[in-house]
Amino acid sequence: MHSQITKELLPIYGPTEASIIAEMVLEKLTGQNSMTQRHLKAENLSSQQQLQLEEYLQQLLNHRPIQYVLNEAWFQNMPFFVDERVLIPRPETEELVEWVVQEEKNQAGITLLDIGSGSGCIPISLAKKLPKATIHSCDISPDALTVAQKNAATLNALVQWHQLDFLNPNHWRLLPAPDIIISNPPYIPASGAKEMSKHVADYEPGIALFVPDDNALVFYQAIADFCVHHGQPGARIYVEIHKDMARNVCDCFEKAGLTTIEVRRDMQGLERMVKARKKSA
């Protein structure tokens, strides 16, 4: 059964990815892990499961991401509901969350603001890992916040949600004065869409991915200005960045008056995260 599904997916996905997707599909359908599902045969599936499998395969062969097909993406060892309303959580964003936890776990009574809620994977994970912190998250998309709130309820995480346009400084007064700001903002220049794979460009929300070609740092500039004018003294910023933008983001933060700027590489050795600090006085 596994090999049959893998074979059907090969025209779109490479052998390794097709095999992984086949495992995910069978686990969703049957609850069996990769060790036991290898012995599954088509006749072991109920008629309902066979119909569901055909529907899954049809969507996958139309390049729909497996996470949207199954309405599930794992992040920080938790299952998040996802669909086209939100970005699919990525492993490098897990590393950003781990960096915050590592640096801030001993801080009590802090207020943390996540900018760009999406599925809620960042603020929900931090609510679970930093239970003494007060967690806020904002997004411009009411649809994304609906998904994030659904995940918070399912995963029993306390997050205060805000629907607003963070790029409008008039909306900043609706947010708390945070000790920590974390964000995985849109940062891909719009012209980059044509170079992306179909399963990203055709399905994931452009509002969560793309920024104008002539203003790729628009969110980082806004985050820096918000921190300087509304953050607590000594407030820390943690952001995910494009692998080629570390120098630009650091310059942006430095010009805004932030200090102690640090770049961190991800597991692939790419410069994907930046931390900065507001002056204490």
UniProtKB/TrEMBL annotation:
Name the SUPFAM superfamilies on file.
S-adenosyl-L-methionine-dependent methyltransferases
Origin: domain of life: Bacteria
Q: Does the keyword Methyltransferase apply?
A: yes
Q: Which residues form the Release factor glutamine methyltransferase N-terminal domain?
A: 17-70
EC nos: 2.1.1.297
Alphabetically, which GO biological process terms does the record hold?
Answer: methylation
Q: Which Gene3D superfamilies match?
A: DNA helicase RuvA subunit, C-terminal domain (1.10.8.10), Vaccinia Virus protein VP39 (3.40.50.150)
Q: Which residues form the Methyltransferase small domain?
A: 108-188
Which molecular function GO terms apply here? methyltransferase activity
PANTHER family from the entry? HEMK METHYLTRANSFERASE, MTRF1L RELEASE FACTOR GLUTAMINE METHYLTRANSFERASE
NCBIfam families assigned to the protein according to its UniProt record, in alphabetical order: hemK_fam (TIGR00536), RF_mod_PrmC (TIGR03534)
The protein, known as: peptide chain release factor N(5)-glutamine methyltransferase
Native source organism of the sequence:
Flavihumibacter stibioxidans
For this protein's source organism, the top of the classification is:
Bacteria, Pseudomonadati, Bacteroidota, Chitinophagia, Chitinophagales
